[in-house]
Every structure is written in C-alpha cells, then in structure tokens.
Amino acid sequence: MSDQEVPAPYRDRVRPARPLAGTRPEATLIRPDGYVAWAGDRDGIPAALLKWCGPADHHTLEGHRASA
Question: What pLDDT sits at residue 26?
Fold first, then answer.
C-alpha cells in the first residue's frame, strides 16, 4: 500500500507498508503494539480504518482538534 492508497484523512495516523508480492491478505492493519487489528482485501480498508482509527476527522493527539 502506498501513501496515496491510505485515505487522506488517515495519513497522519496510518503508515503504509509494502507486502511481499503475491501474499495474502491484501491489507493488514497492525496496532502500535504489534498485534494485527484487521486483515482482509482492499475493499475492507475504509471500514477497518473507521473501526480502529475512528472517524476521519477525529484526532486525539495533543495539538489536534477532536470532534464533538
């Protein structure tokens, strides 16, 4: 997955990594502690990001706005 494949609102929270060629699953969301939060095909990425990273406009890091 390249930077352009990560939806723009999540680019400050998600780092893409290139999988080994021909491997499955197509995409994996790995938590900061190293556990796999989600794995599946590319069509499932938006739902996984919403579930594990929250709404696209939600920020919890100091200095970022938080949605109400």
Answer: 82
